[in-house]
Design brief:
It is built from 3 helices and no strands. It is mainly α. The longest helix has 25 residues. It starts with a helix and ends in a 13-residue tail after the last helix.
């Protein structure tokens, strides 16, 4: 998958090594924080916006539902950013 992404889209995928792998290198602390934030956002999307249960019947339906939910998350993140709150606190974005 890494080679396919790089060959077709020039995307370099960085995956942390496990301790028992051959060319084990320690994962940088800077990237651990970013990975933690990405996993938090995905968990919030799945829980708060019910991404796993969308009941779409067609591809256009799932595209419309996902784009509306991702737009809502983007707006909530922007509201948090403008108010100086943490971006990960989506539930509290509309409370001042």
């Amino acid at each position: 998958m890494q080679l396919n992404l790089f060959d077709n889209f020039e995307v370099r995928l960085k995956v942390p090594f496990r301790n028992n792998q051959y060319a084990y290198r320690k994962y940088p602390q800077k990237l651990k924080g970013k990975r933690q934030m990405i996993e938090t956002v995905f968990a919030q999307l799945c829980d708060q916006f019910n991404l796993k249960r969308n009941y779409a019947k067609t591809y256009d339906g799932i595209l419309a539902r996902l784009s509306s939910k991702l737009s809502a998350v983007s707006i909530l993140n922007y509201i948090n950013f403008m108010n100086g709150n943490k971006l990960s606190k989506l539930k509290h974005a509309l409370y001042f």
